[in-house]
Amino acid sequence: MTAIKHALQRDIFTPNDERLLGIVNVCKAGKKKKNCFLCATVTTERPVQVKVVKVKKSDKGDFYKRQQAWELRDLTVVDAKDASKENPEFDLHFEKVYKWLASSTAEKNSFISCIWKLNQRYLRKKLDFVNVNPQLLEESVPSGESQSVAGGDEDALEEYQELSAREEQDIESMMEMCEYAVSNAEAFAEKLFKELQVLDGANIHSIMASEKQVNILMQLLDEALAEVDTIEGKLSSYEEMLQSVKDQMDQVSQSNHLIQMSNTNNGKLLDEIQFLVNYMDLSKGHIRALQEGDLTSPRGIEACISASEALLQCMNVALRPGHDQLAAVNQQQKLFCELRDTFARRLTNHLNNVFVHQGHDQSSTLSQNSAELSLPKHSPLHRDLLRYAKLMEWLKNTQREKYEGLSRTYVDYMNRLYEREIKDFFEIAKIKMAGTSKEAKGKFGLHGSSGKLTGSTSSLNKLTVQGSNSRRSQSSSLLDMGNMSASDLDVADRTKFDKIFEQVLSELEPLCLAEQDFISKFFKLHQHQTVLPPLAQVHLKDMVRLMMNKIFQSIEPELNSLIALGDKIDSFHSLYMLVKMSHHVWTAENVDPASFLSTTLGNVLVTVKRNFDKCISGQIKQMEEVKISKKSKVGILPFVTRFEEFAELAETIFRNAERRGDLDKAYVKLIRAVFMNVEKVASESQKTPRDVVMMENFHHIFSTLSRLKISCLDAERREAKHKYTDHLQCYVINSLGQPLEKLNHFFEGVEARVAQGVREEEVSYQLAFNKQELRKVIKEYPGKEVKKGLDNLYKKVDKHLCEEESLLQVVWHSMQDEFIRQYKHFEGLIGRCYPGSGITMEFTIQDILEYFSSIAQSH
């Protein structure tokens, strides 16, 4: 084993700067025996690394190779299998368990002991040695065993270390001094042994010579030990004294700790008392104000507000643990509850009396004979009550039932007050409307609710009504009736109605807004957005709207009644009301879309829109029921004129209005009905030709739409122009067939022959269309006869056309153009079908122009 150890050290570990300290011949347990060696090694360089290396003898030669290595720090368990019996098996637990079978139990034990020593010397990690005899794990083992078993103590391996360079040099020097050092090694060894004995003897003589010095040294050591004993005695006495001082200091420290603890407890007690005194003590002045403070004077109200806030602060103080068990605290809380109930009762009774008195007050009611259409202002009452707003907030936080009771009382009595005032206000408004209507009917015979605009387009008026304040400036500007085609009576009457309706809305709006603002502030139903979550804010708005609905529950019925009256007086009032109501709804929604005013006016706007739709339906119905005279010419139909007047009035009213879309839809319905009924009347007309009725009325419609420039009716304007142009052309063509009737029939026959396949130059050979027949027909229409026929045509056209549209000259000019076109057509046929015949008409184009001009000038 020693030779193997030397060979492994030389061949494997020395080149890697490692020293072999332990070795065991092993094979894997339970398998075919393949011997190998487990070696325990350490590196020669710092830091020292300890490894377990598996070395295997090569199969091809007598040399060893390194197969596998593990770090000793990775070893967790060494299992010797049995501590009492000899068993060569053992396990090493690295990342997995390796089972080995040693060649002998002694080698196994020596290797395990070596591993234990290496761990103790270099690693000192917790390594479990299981089933290992404790004797193997002692610091030292018998030297004989250690030297006889490979892998023992590290000191036993020193003899196997290689010589250093200096040692090699010394040995070489000694060998050079002896000639036979190489040839006779035994004699050289004997010589060295003798020299060593001489040196040992010299050492012994030297030691014996120094015995006297050794005795002197021993004596000095004895004296030193005696001195040490003396010093130890003094140190012991000093230690006893220090222990006594320590005990006294401990007592002082304990006393100081008790004093400090007492001081701390006294400070905490003082803080608790100070806390209770600061936060649960109510001054006598506050108590007096809560019990008997004046709730009518401003100074008394301020004192009550301060006292109530102080009381609420005392009641809401967050008590610390254990405070509720103190009798003084309980007594103070009971006092606070009594003061709260007493003051809440006094405040509730006082405000109840104020609400009841205001509800029964008759001084603010409108007089039936009042000439001014206005509602009483409640700002003084609101100003007086707002002084109690903070007290209402205190009541809301402390006595919720009394707060809600006060809210119901306020709503009930203010409902009675507003109901009287609003009823009287609307009665006056109705009287003013009805009085104006009756007066107008009595003096001028107003048509009433028919909505018909009378008068001619030449009667134009412009009324400018100034608004009463800047907020109404936009809606009041609608009263500017510039160039409205209606009678003076209609304009004045509708303007007055518009002014009354605007006055009603202008009075109601600030009244509702002021009351809503007061309710929000007085009953503390308004909060900043950052204070409450969105759901709480919606709840507050719902409460305000509910109170407003109860207080002003008469506004919506009264408005609907007023609207019904206005619609009954004149259905065109719905246009004014739609614009006014839309503007006020838009204004209210910009302030608060969910407010009472916005909701109420929105509901009323639905009624107004329904009346507006009914007005449009009535206009359409009147168109469908129109009847024309069979004895007189038709001219411009009444509903066409009414549409023009309606459009002019609507454009004036709806200028810059928010509900322009409603008017555009109504325009489309009306113009479609106008188109349909114009065609219907034209088809039924007996006195006036259909083309004339269509031409005149569509020309009037086209002129109206072009003048008013209604963008939503651009398509209808183009359609009206197209219909007017088509029927003008049809009327001209049909009328011109009469002055040259035979000539027309002749050339129609010529064109028929050409259409049947006869060549144009061969038409003259047809018996009915030869040159003689042509000359015969042409002679029947000399210039004098043509002029006479045209004069008769002019008179007939004049009878067909109405004077309002002034289309006679337009039609006459179109007939002139058509006549010349026919003339040129006839000349062309003559030139193509009768070439070289020299046949021409008996009048020229210049004659035609003179005929038409002279006839127009003579009439």
What does this structure look like?
- The chain is of the alpha+beta class.
- Among the domains are: 1-136, PH-domain like, CATH 2.30.29; 367-435 and 489-614; 626-737; 766-857, no CATH class.
- The protein is built from 27 helices and ten strands.
- The chain has helices at residues 2-13, 105-123, 143-148, 165-177, 185-209, 211-279, 284-292, 298-315, 327-360, 379-385, 389-398, 400-444, 473-476, 488-522, 534-551, 555-569, 573-591, 596-624, 638-653, 660-684, 690-708, 714-736, 741-756, 771-779, 783-800, 808-833, 845-858; strands at 18-28, 36-43, 50-57, 64-71, 77-79, 89-93, 97-102, 128-130, 460-461, 484-485.
- The protein has an eight-stranded mixed beta sheet with strand order 4-3-2-1-7-6-5-8.
- A hairpin with a 6-residue loop joins β2 and β3.
- Mean pLDDT is 80; it is low at 139-160, 365-369, 438-489 and 528-532.
- One of its GO terms (biological process) is Golgi to plasma membrane transport.
- InterPro entries: Sec3-PIP2_bind (IPR028258), Sec3_C (IPR048628), Sec3_CC (IPR019160).
